[in-house]
Amino acid sequence: MNNSAPKPYIGRFAPSPSGPLHFGSLIAALGSYLQAKSHQGSWLLRIEDLDPPREVSGAADDILFTLDAFGLHWDGPLVYQSQRLAAYQAVLDDWASQGLTYYCHCSRKMIAEGGGFYTGHCRALGLGPAHAATRLVMTNPVYEFVDQLQGCVKIPRALAEEDFIVRRRDGFYAYNLAVVLDDADAGITEVVRGADLLEPTGRQISLYQKLKAPTPSWLHLPLATLAGNKLSKQNHATALDLNQASRQLYQALAFLGQAPPATLWQEDVTVVLNWAIAHWQLPQVPSTTHIEL
Ligand code: GLU
Ligand code: ZN
Fold first, then answer.
1. What pLDDT is recorded for position 2?
2. Mutation pick for ligand 1 pocket among 51, 172, 173, 175 (CB with most ligand atoms within 8 Å)
3. pTM more than 0.85
């Protein structure tokens, strides 16, 4: 008989500090928070400040302040990816010593001209590190995975088989590498985020396999779109309004297919969130990748 207790749920929200949180970010924050809290789990927060050229000064603090104002209090220590660079490099050094990575000098243009996928041009060339990206030899492509909301997700063969970049030519670590090392390190049991990240999930699963780390389950929430475009900091989606926190939580709950009572938005954020935790129904969340607002 197996007496071991079920693994405690550990979820997370991992915003990039490229601007203030907007309604699209609130959906990812709230969805991941409610999955964690309705499983009596913990909800961790990680600031993904991995890409300085895209970061806006003050955005990280602004995100923390906003989450607090919305009553979305995280558990455990806050993690900044910028403080994890040595951990990323240690893994790259280990792979390099096993001959699993190589330097690539191909430009985006060259790859686009060759059909859009990287087919290993530099793999056997023994190129040096100057102005080079680091690629990981793809030994275990992942062609499909099961998403808790989207069902079986297929990944195009050419994409699955690419030797993808783990460290960029400009020296910054790649998102896929950092996100997997961080989530594995934190013992995340389920990743809940926007459906814009469905595609890289296959690569991320292949990294878990390479690291011999347990793979979390995946839940990709629908993205809010305006005139067909996802809300993003890049298209200047309006920042969340701290004076309308309950109303925006209410709207996010409705977006996620929940049925909050009509007067709930007049309550304090704590009341809204407690209602939401107690009544969270994952099967009510629309299993589509995009919803027009
Ligand atoms: N930092 C990413 C973003 O803000 C999310 C990463 C993730 O949830 O895996 O889009
Ligand atoms: Zn190359």
1. 54
2. 175
3. yes
